[in-house]
UniProtKB/TrEMBL annotation:
Gene Ontology biological-process annotations: vacuolar transport
Gene3D superfamilies per UniProt: 6.10.140.1230
Protein name as it appears in the record: SNF7 family protein
InterPro entries (alphabetical): Snf7_fam (IPR005024)
Keyword flag Coiled coil: yes
Coiled coil: 154-181
Biased composition range(s): Acidic residues: 199-214
Region (Disordered): 187-228
Length: 228
């Protein structure tokens, strides 16, 4: 019955609005899961930085290697935080899209007509380029076009590769800042000068450092999965 009504009278506005809201909620849940995962990675990476720094202080002969490790972990932390910030911004955009879509359907119900929204189209066009949301945002885009809320989507001129290149350049400049934050200003020197007051903590076994390296590789894989 609904399909026959759609053929003769067009899609039912209430059905369209429910479908759009379902897709938006599905996207929001996906973003919440990804943001939570990045928060866990953030915490683990901070701990790896601290562990590598303590190792450099306790073992001057390994100070250079440990210092390189702290910078590697700091670089990963920068990437994690950039991705987390991007997803948080995307979540806010998605919430804005939901409010605008519901408002558009409300106006249509009251006035009997619907104006296309360039604001919604801009936000959807941005969100549809996120790998995390691409599939469901394509569906949402189709529904919004059918409802007459937006025009057909047009790709942005800026590519993901360009954005990634810019981020890599910025990341190099932010590594020291992250190290200052995590280590509270006590950056480990490459030569490995022993601290005046030794840290009274048990030395970690070599196997634990190997586990850290393995975990770092897993973290990189997860982060790349979120970005590609």
């Amino acid at each position: 019955m609904e399909s026959l009504k759609a053929v003769f009278f067009g899609p039912d506005p209430q059905t369209q609005m429910r479908k759009c809201n379902q897709l938006i909620r599905a996207n929001t849940r996906q973003l919440d899961r990804d943001i939570a995962q990045l928060k866990t990675l953030d915490s683990k990476t901070r701990q790896f930085i601290l562990n590598a720094s303590r190792r450099a202080q306790r073992n001057p002969s390994q100070a250079k290697q440990a210092t390189n490790e702290t910078k590697t972990f700091a670089r990963e932390l920068v990437r994690i935080r950039k991705q987390s910030a991007r997803l948080s911004t995307s979540r806010a955009q998605l919430q804005s899209v939901q409010m605008q879509v519901n408002e558009a359907f409300s106006v249509r119900k009251i006035q009997g007509s619907l104006k296309k929204s360039t604001g919604i189209m801009k936000d959807v066009n941005t969100l549809i380029r996120l790998p995390e949301l691409s599939a469901t945002m394509q569906q949402l885009s189709t529904e919004l076009v059918r409802a007459g809320i937006i025009e057909e989507m047009v790709d942005d001129a800026i590519t993901d590769n360009q954005l990634l290149e810019e981020e890599e350049e910025e990341a190099d400049a932010e590594v020291d800042k992250v190290l200052q934050e995590v280590l509270r200003g006590k950056l480990t020197q490459a030569e490995g000068v022993a601290p005046e007051k030794p840290i009274e903590e048990e030395e970690q076994p070599a196997e634990e450092f190997e586990d850290q390296e393995a975990t770092l590789e897993q973290m990189r894989g997860r982060l790349e999965a979120l970005k590609s």
